[in-house]
Design brief:
- It is a single chain.
- The chain contains 17 helices and 11 strands.
- The protein is mostly helical.
- Among the domains are: 38-101 and 329-344, Arc Repressor Mutant, subunit A (Orthogonal Bundle); 119-193, Arc Repressor Mutant, subunit A (Orthogonal Bundle), CATH 1.10.10; 195-323, no CATH class.
- Residues 361-393 are annotated as: Disordered.
- It comes from Prunus avium (Cherry).
- One of its GO terms (molecular function) is RNA binding.
Length: 408
């Protein structure tokens, strides 16, 4: 039976075509798992920053509750904070609950700041490389702020880096509007105009080319990759003005540019919508998603949680990063501390529930024991508080924030 669908609205047709094409990439379970890993990290990291900005680095739980709206969370802040006793210390003083970071958490904060100080030369190189790839050697500050966490930049990178390296960067505003403030490259450094592809080829003593990370059974995809890879590599640091839009050379340059952009990020991934904001600056095609889907051996496109993300395949081995930035190592310690506290919280809840059942004279069988263990692993919310991530609509908003912010 053949079903024919007729659409009178051209926009509706375009919508279905666009969404069908985005779904056409076969799912990679390892990379999908990598995208969902540590999904609560971003919220706790934001709570950490809220507390650090408070006087004496102590916040009232009521204040954090108000901030829950900006974090796209519902439910009680007190319940959330108590789930992570290794990260947050909650105490009652008078008739108010207060929260501060634990000693172990403060230790990680200090370690992260120490790593950022040591990584300053790396941040300078990343910023310079971004500007060198842009068409006019300038980038809008508002747009760049959307990628700063992907790149590992400290929140005060404008104050910390630009004035200190005035021989490389300067702040300009040619229109006078506040939203038009830009960072401009002052001097070109040829030593930095080397892409990750070129650096790898130099080490191996080969010509620069892309690598393909697909199963050998993907015969047609491999054939298309070899055909694409056979043409000369075009560095993203070369001026694109001489290239014709829609040509094979332009496609080669664009693939190389996105590859280089992802190589500069901490997690070798970025939101496609965020990359699209730099369409003019990096001379990207209007339908960037279509181009990325044409190269499944180089990029993996996911629509997990309805946020389209592009991942650099070669950056991962299974669900783990091949090369971990020092900042990633610290952030993973934060995630381990979160998990340790969550495990302790669930263990205590499990024991309390067991004690309640014993008092009621209930006999626990294996099914209940298995259920308790599974609930311990799944981090159940309090029975009286079913908001937050358990609410479908709230979960959508939460994941939108998570993956539109650039997972750590």
């Amino acid at each position: 039976m053949v079903v024919t669908m007729h659409f009178r609205n051209p926009r509706l047709v375009q919508y279905f075509v666009r969404n069908f094409s985005l779904w056409s990439m076969k799912k990679d379970p390892y990379l999908e798992s990598a995208l969902s890993k540590n999904r609560r990290w971003i919220v706790n990291n934001q709570i950490k920053n809220i507390i650090l900005r408070c006087p004496d680095q102590v916040a009232t739980v009521r204040f954090i509750q108000k901030k829950f709206k900006t974090l796209d969370l519902q439910g009680k802040a007190l319940n959330w904070l108590k789930k992570y006793p290794c990260c947050f210390q909650v105490y009652l003083q008078g008739d108010k609950y207060y929260c501060q970071l634990t000693k172990r958490m403060m230790g990680l904060v200090e370690e992260e700041e120490s790593v950022k100080d040591m990584q300053e030369p790396v941040f300078v190189e990343r910023l310079a490389k971004l500007l060198m790839m842009s068409s006019n050697k300038r980038l809008n500050v508002v747009k760049l702020n959307e990628l700063k966490r992907n790149l590992g930049f400290p929140d005060d990178y404008l104050i910390r880096l630009v004035p200190k390296y005035s021989d490389m960067f300067q702040i300009v505003n040619y229109s006078g509007r506040r939203s038009s403030m830009e960072i401009e490259l002052v001097s070109w450094n040829p030593d930095l105009a080397v892409s990750a592809i070129e650096a790898s080829a130099h080490k191996q003593g080969t010509e620069p080319c892309f690598t393909c990370s697909l199963p050998s059974t993907w015969v047609k995809s491999w054939e298309r990759f070899h055909e694409f890879n056979a043409t000369p590599y075009i560095s993203p640091y070369l001026d694109s003005k001489g290239l014709v839009e829609g040509s094979k050379e332009m496609e080669k340059r664009t693939v190389g540019l996105v590859h280089e952009l992802l190589s500069l990020t901490l997690w070798k991934k970025a939101s496609i919508s965020k990359l699209g904001h730099f369409q003019r600056e990096f001379v990207l095609p209007e339908r960037l998603n279509v181009l990325l889907l044409k190269h499944p051996g180089i990029f993996y496109v996911s629509n997990k949680y309805q946020i389209y993300t592009v991942v650099l395949r070669e950056g991962y081995n299974g669900q783990g990063l091949v090369d971990k930035d020092p900042l990633v190592v610290v952030k993973e310690k934060f995630g381990e501390l979160m998990q340790e506290g969550l495990h302790e919280y669930n263990r205590r809840r499990h024991l309390v529930n067991l004690e309640k059942k014993k008092k009621k004279g209930m006999v626990l069988g294996r099914p209940n024991e298995g259920k308790d263990r599974s609930s311990e692993m799944s981090d159940p919310d309090d029975q009286g508080d079913r908001g937050g991530l358990f609410d479908p609509e709230e979960r959508k908003r939460f994941y939108k924030v998570l993956f539109d912010d650039g997972a750590p």
